[in-house]
Write a structure and sequence with these properties.
Elements: H1 3-14, H2 24-35, H3 40-50, H4 54-63, E1 75-80, H5 83-87, H6 90-101, E2 114-119, E3 131-133, E4 136-138, H7 143-159
Helix pairs in contact: 1-2, 1-3, 2-3
């Protein structure tokens, strides 16, 4: 782990001088806000600071879907799994994303280009099925449109 991340973690811990279990979630949120995800080093240091086993911290962090254990990809794909999207075929889109990108929910491709996140609802019901890539919505999505979108993003990367 880089020195900068270690000092960031130490700096974050200093904001929580009271050693209380109630500080766990705010500390995890702080780590994720600053570093972008929950690192193994941060779990160990938080555990030492709060006198909580790392397994308990992992249990809490994995319970809440807001926490990530790996960095987001350059293109963070959020798949809506709300009722309207589910009824209109989001399962097929998710299967295609998993097959094409070779990742599952919460994972990032080895090249760091794409990450995948399944959300309960992303608020685009009128455009179902919908996904968001880095906050940009793609609605009334078909397999063909999804494939074209992924190809365009990959093509764009090859040009850079």
């Amino acid at each position: 782990m880089e020195k900068e991340q270690k000092s960031n973690i130490d700096s974050m811990l200093s904001k929580f001088p009271d050693i209380r279990e109630e500080s766990l979630i705010p500390l995890l949120q702080e780590v994720q806000d600053v570093i972008g995800f929950i690192t193994e080093e941060s779990v160990v240091k938080i555990g030492q600071h709060l006198n909580i086993p790392a397994s308990t911290i992992y249990g809490v962090a994995s319970f809440y879907n807001q926490f990530r254990f790996s960095p987001k990809g350059k293109y963070h794909v959020q798949v809506c799994y709300g009722t309207a999207c589910h009824i209109l075929g989001t399962s097929t889109l998710l299967n295609e994303l998993e097959k094409t990108l070779k990742i599952k929910d919460g994972e990032t491709t080895k090249d760091g280009l794409f990450s995948l996140e399944v959300k309960t609802c992303i608020g685009g019901c009128g455009q179902a099925p919908v996904i968001a890539i880095n906050g940009e919505y793609y609605g009334k999505l078909t397999l063909e449109k999804l494939t074209d979108t992924l190809k365009n993003l990959k093509h764009q990367e090859n040009k850079e």
